Model the fold of this input.
Amino acid sequence: MSYCIQERHQITVSTDPQPRCYNGCHFSSEQVWTPWENFDYVATPEKGAERIKFWTELNDYAISQRGASAKREFKLVPLKEDL
Done:
């Protein structure tokens, strides 16, 4: 069985009933998570855990440099076998 690493990130969504945006800022907005997307494929759960650790550490560095907008989440998902 093979496995897939999925990732998602936060985006800013305007919650203003009127579509207004001034200098790139919405009158009211909120942070929402995107749907999970396939990011990487691995053969074993151990390799998946190793890859998730790598991507999480890299993402922590990105957050330290660019702020919370760079936040990503990762998870390991088993792929269904084709028979």
Observations:
- The mean pLDDT is 88.
- The chain has one helix and six strands.
- The CA atoms of residues 50 and 56 lie 10 Å apart.
- Strands lie at 3-14, 21-22, 25-26, 29-33, 37-42, 72-78.
